[in-house]
Every structure is written in structure tokens, then in C-alpha cells.
Design brief:
Two copies of one chain form a homodimer.
Chain A: H1 3-21, H2 25-31, E1 39-41, E2 48-49, H3 51-63, E3 71-80, E4 83-92, E5 95-105, E6 110-119
Parallel strand pairs in A: 1-6
Antiparallel strand pairs in A: 1-2, 3-4, 4-5, 5-6
Helix pairs in contact in A: 1-2
Chain lengths: 137, 137
């Protein structure tokens, strides 16, 4: 893993949230892999597997102009066995989510093949790290 | 990807739930990668990154003999860019979760490097598939 790979991975993760924030379906479509089986688990949804189901969900979500704004923070990027993994927090008006975003490299760029977002405590502002000690809840 | 690879991946996923069900910390420890940066997102917890934090969480969860029983169903396994991905439902007395379990192959076996479980609708019994049409909620 080189720093460049990780920077490109973080850039792809940022591009995902930019497409989300700007309701840019064309950018969202281009970000997702078209060679691998993609999967997406929106909060409270059943798992979606396959490009048609995943893109249909984004079309619905991005078409909703009243959708709340989303921002991400604390991205932690690691490359493992050819897969780029970014774990980050997502801030919405209703609360905090934690997301796992997975990418594979198509020879040219990192392409997303999995997204799962689920409810989480807010990040602790004092921490620079996304891995505070576990808390029993 | 061969059928054997996928079967071994499903076997590793089953071994994870067996360790969970039987509170077998030694088996759980052996399942998780000791060469890659592991991550784990339990429902409602902040993300845990690194082997120490992840194993400490399993030690706490498995030490609780009163913990509810967990079963999994509808596993969907795919191998992408060297990563084995299994998405499945988890049934607990309190409700249904959906989990993403990621593995890398260490040359001998599939080793887990990521687990995220989050609240989900129950699977539709009529479906053999984990990918029903998306529902807005």
C-alpha cells in the first residue's frame, strides 16, 4: 500500500459524499463498480445486491430534493487484499451514522462495490481516531 | 472464483456464528485476521479498528453468558478483488439485523477482517434471495 493509493481511496470516498450531497446521480452511477457485484445497506433497509437494485435506491434517494444534507468525518482508509476500505462517520440532522465503504481498483480508479450505514454514537471530538475504546451499551 | 472458494467462504462465515453462539473466544480469535487491520461495528457502537479493540469487544460480548442466542440466515457470498464478502441476516430475540462479513484468504483459509451488523427488516420468507426490491421507509 502506498500513500498515493490511500489518498486516491480517500478521494473516491469524498467523491461519493459529494455526489450524495449534490444529488448528482450521474456521478453516483460512475462511482459504483460496473464489473463487480455491488451491494448496499441503507439504514433500516433490507440489503440490496446487484447494480440494478443499488442504482434504483440511489435514484430514489437523490431524487428527493428535500432529503437532509449529509456530511462525513473521521475517514479511516486501509487497503486489504486488493480492497480499499474506508470507515467514516456520517452526520445528518437526525443523528449520527457510521459507514463502511468498500472499493476495488479497476486499473484506473477506485470503484465502490459496497456501502453500509448504520446508527452510531457521535464521534468524540477529543479523539482524532475513529477507534475509541469499546463501550457496553 | 470457484465453487470451492465460495463454499470455503460460507464455511468461514458459519464458523463465525458458531463461535458467537457457543461463546468460544478461542475460535473467535482464530477466525479473525492477525495480518491485516481488522474492524468491527457492533449495533449502536462506535467503530472499532485494530485487533486489540476488536478482540476486547468480543471478549466482553462472549463472556456474557446471558447474551441472547443468535442465528444467521440467507448468506450471500461473493469474492471481489481478493476479498470474500458475505451478507446475511442475523435473528435475535429483539429483532433482525443485517451483517456484512469480510474475509481475506491467507493462503490456507479465509480470515475475517471486518464485521458490521445493523438493524434491518426481517427477511421475506417467500424470497430465496437477500435482495428484495428496495422499500422506502
Amino acid at each position: 500500500m502506498t500513500a498515493d493509493d490511500t489518498n486516491a481511496l480517500l478521494f473516491a470516498n469524498e467523491a461519493f459524499y459529494m455526489a450524495f450531497q449534490t444529488h448528482d446521480m450521474r456521478a453516483m452511477d460512475a462511482l459504483w463498480s460496473d464489473t463487480q457485484t455491488v451491494s448496499c445497506i441503507h439504514p433500516g433497509w433490507p440489503p440490496l445486491i446487484g447494480r440494478d437494485a443499488v442504482m434504483e435506491s440511489w435514484l430514489m434517494l437523490l431524487a428527493n430534493q428535500a432529503a437532509p444534507n449529509i456530511t462525513f468525518s473521521h475517514p479511516a482508509a486501509t487497503i486489504i487484499a486488493g480492497t480499499g476500505r474506508v470507515i467514516c462517520y456520517e452526520a445528518l440532522p437526525e443523528g449520527t451514522l457510521v459507514a463502511t465503504n468498500l472499493f476495488h481498483h479497476d486499473g484506473n480508479q477506485w470503484r465502490m462495490f459496497h456501502h453500509q450505514a448504520s446508527p452510531s454514537p457521535a464521534p468524540e471530538e477529543a479523539d482524532d481516531d475513529v477507534s475509541p475504546p469499546p463501550r457496553l451499551q
